[in-house]
Amino acid sequence: MNSVRITVLKREFYPDLAEQYLSEGTSAGACPLQAVGDVFLYTGSAEKPDGLCPWAWIDLYASVASLYTGGDENTWYRDGGTRILCCTDGVRPVVYKLELIRS
Question: What is the C-alpha to C-alpha distance for residues 53 and 1, in angstroms, rounded to an integer?
Fold first, then answer.
């Protein structure tokens, strides 16, 4: 059965936005839940991989499910089985790479 590897590529932080909008200001820092290089494996059943941020999972799930079921046709990417997405935290977004792993 196929699987999808989810890798953390970047953790961004926008201190100007944090200072203006977050109650903790810049002390909030970048996302505390994910680190660059973290890898998660989705193997089906719509279950979030252990350790993956639950809010990021909500943002990523549609693309993960599409890749998992073979929806890898995409001319925007060099490799149709790859997607680059981020969570919707506008102050401290995390960028993820999704890769279809064919079995």
Answer: 24
**Token code pair at residue 8:** 């953390």
Could you give the C-alpha distances from 103 to 34, 43, 49, in angstroms and in order? Answer: 27, 11, 18
Q: How far apart are CA 16 and CA 90, in angstroms?
A: 12
Tell me what pLDDT residue 81 has.
86
pLDDT tens, residue by residue, 54-66: 999 999 999 999 9
Residue 55 main-chain phi, psi, to 5 deg: -75, -40
Please state the pTM of the whole predicted model.
0.92
Give the Cα separation of 18 and 32 in Å (integer): 14
* Domain residue spans of the chain: 3-101
